[in-house]
Amino acid sequence: MKKSKKYLMAFYSSFLLGILLSMGSCEKVDVPKGTPKCIKQKIREENKKSGCLKAVYEYECNGTIVYYFEYDCPTFVAMQPTIIDTKCNDFNGCNLNVATNKKLIWQR
Fold it and tell me: Domain range holding 50?
């Protein structure tokens, strides 16, 4: 009897630990289906790092889909690139005033 209790306790402990780890390891980011994984990851990271991320917009600029990260903290904005492509590379060749198909994809 004692042996089976040990195994049962070990099973329940492992099960609970697995649940706790899976809950804390991946914060869900509510964005439209089809949003690139790196964009979701960047939203998570920016939220944790600074808390200054206000919103993320998707635009089409010169035939390329780009993402504009809008921040609340003025000093933080100056340090970070705010327009990136679908692979999270800096995208400097975009004038948002002439970009098309603006969509809000995430907001704090």
Answer: 29-107
Instruction: Answer yes or no: is 60 within a domain.
Output: yes
Count of domains for the chain: 1
81 within domain boundaries: yes
Work out the average pLDDT over 11-38: 62
Q: Dihedral sign, CA of 28, 29, 30, 35?
A: negative
Is residue 83 domain-resident?
yes
CA 12 – CA 19 distance, rounded (Å): 11
For residue 42, is it within any domain? yes
d(C-alpha 11, C-alpha 29), whole Å: 31
Burial class (CB in 10 A: 0-12, 13-18, 19+), 58: buried
And the tokens for 103? 């969509």
* pLDDT 10s digits, 31-80: 999 999 999 999 999 888 878 889 999 999 989 999 999 888 877 656 66
Using only the alpha carbons of the chain, give its radius of gyration. 21
- Is this prediction's pTM over 0.85? no
